[in-house]
Amino acid sequence: MNRNIFDELFVLELANNHWGDVRRGLKIIREFARVVRYNGVRAAIKLQLRDVDNFIHRDFRDRTDIRYIKKTLDTQLSKEELGMLAESVRRNNCIRMATPFDEASVDLCEELGMEIIKIASSDVNDWLLIERIAKTKLPVIFSTGGSTLKNIYDIVTFFENRNIPLALNHCVSLYPSEESELELNQIDFLKERYPDNIIGFSTHEHRDGTASLQIAYAKGARTFERHIDLHTDDHPISPYCATPEQIDRWIQTFKQSKKMCGVPGSTKAEPPKRALDYLDNLVRGVYAKRDLPAGHVLREEDFYLAIPLQKGQLSCRELLTNEVLAQACAKDEPLMVEVLDSEYARNPNMRAKIMKRGL
Q1: DSSP strand E in the chain: where?
Q2: Do strands 140-143 and 285-288 pair parallel, antiparallel, or not at all (unpaired)?
């Protein structure tokens, strides 16, 4: 399975923050796509799709006391308007992505050219919907908020058996989530349990949070999701939605975290040259304890160790006993690599290494 589509992918969840106004939705897409372009990252802008006329039972369409029903109706867009949003995402060089909440909306995902599909936490056991999503063969991200171990196992196994790329997002389904509720150690758990899947972090915390991204990246999360919105006079911004300025800081935090973490944890990093140069200054060099003639066979009592280590000088890192001197060396003078008469000293790689270090 090709997991690369998820690696270092930012998912910007537009959701229903267009509030049924396609112009508002287009503006959100433009503003956040500008942030994505400026930072040079890969991002998907995600819509939520519902076949509203059939999604809500006709006997409940007038129930304004049920928040989910009221908001679904208040934010309804036509298929043509949703097409405009999807096309704007494409034109702004972002990845088209959607969360479909019913089978007809999966049909619409295909019609609108969606490139990734999201399964919402609430649909973990909706196998009619999941089966329909799998038929698209599109890569899938699944958020684990509210899921049991069996739920996650079933989802992973289902998509693995169909060779469909799947990413698992650790998620806490609280809006907004407090820092004490984030349970970021679950990223460790998911990485260990599902090493063949990209693990991500979908957060609904207060919109100014960046520390969680640093921790999530360090723990191995490689795809990240946040809700996005704009400040306007007509609609208040939810506390778990991020503004363009906050997404910019969020991505900058990701870049800083990546730089600080360095190579993957399974690989030993090569020490930077600057660190090696610094450490070489702390290494003791070999100095003659007395006048040593050419042809002399070195013994431990013939030399002592002291700083500084000089260019081309032998150090405490080399094994010197029983080495033969090709040249004489005066008392308290450094023993240089060229004074040795041995295959070791004539090795060009070893000589080059010794000649590079020291003051």
Answers
A1: 9-15, 42-49, 95-100, 116-119, 140-143, 166-171, 198-202, 223-228, 241-242, 285-288, 303-306
A2: unpaired
Residue 204 and residue 191 in contact, taking contact as beta carbons nearer than 8 Å: no
Q: Is residue 80 part of a domain?
A: yes
Within a domain: 136? yes
Dihedrals phi, psi of 343, to nearest 5 degrees: -60, -35
Contacts of 153 (CB under 8 A, 6+ apart): none
- Residue the block writes with tokens 């030993």: 268
**Structural domains of the chain, count:** 2
For 91-148, write each residue's pLDDT tens digit: 999 999 999 999 999 999 999 999 999 999 888 899 999 999 999 999 999 999 888 9
HSE-up (13 A, CA, CB side) for residue 275: 4
- Do 104 and 233 lie in one domain? The reply is yes
Residue 119 and residue 142 in contact, taking contact as beta carbons nearer than 8 Å: yes
Same domain, 193 and 298: no
One domain, residues 287 and 208: no
Domain extent, residue 291, equals 273-356
Judge whether 268 lies within some domain: no
Phi, psi of 315 (to 5 degrees): -130, 180
- Within 13 A of 96's CA, how many CA atoms are on the CB side? 21
